[in-house]
Amino acid sequence: MIRVKTVIEKLRIDCTPEPLRVVGGSGDLAGITDVLKFSNTAFVIPKSDRAAPSDSAVSIRQRTQRVFSVILGFTKQRVRTSESDLDNIEDSSEAVKAALIGWTPEGENSPVSFVGAGIARADYDQGFVLWACDFACPYYVRAIAE
User: Fold this and answer.
1) CA 21/CA 19 separation, integer angstroms
2) CB burial class (10 A; 0-12, 13-18, 19+) of residue 7?
3) Which of 36-40, 59-63, 99-103, 117-121 has the lowest mean pLDDT?
4) Cα torsion at 73, 76, 80, 83 (round to 10°)?
5) Which of 51, 68, 71, 146 gives the lowest tally of CB atoms within 10 Å of its CB?
């Protein structure tokens, strides 16, 4: 199954320094307002594992989708009401999609696919928007039935 650390490494190579300057994991989200004072940011967090029913009665073999989010953070310097500021969100989102869609991480059998995107959180008083791009990478859960 795809690991968050692997996705972070991929984004650090393919998306930095522009349009994203800092890429971290879910632990880095705790200080989101401090980090966002300095730059556009991207955080990778696991979202869910969605399993299909087993395709065998003798053993367990379930196709499972590991869904993860790349949370893009934009400060009030980058998010206003102008069209060019919306372009910043779109440019960063497109860069992340270009880096991940179709990429097969080492040790995986299937490529990453795009699931969707939307606002994860917006705090206009603090001056930031978090945009979540969701991706999935399938893997199999296997076990012998007892």
Assistant:
1) 7
2) buried
3) 36-40
4) -50
5) 146
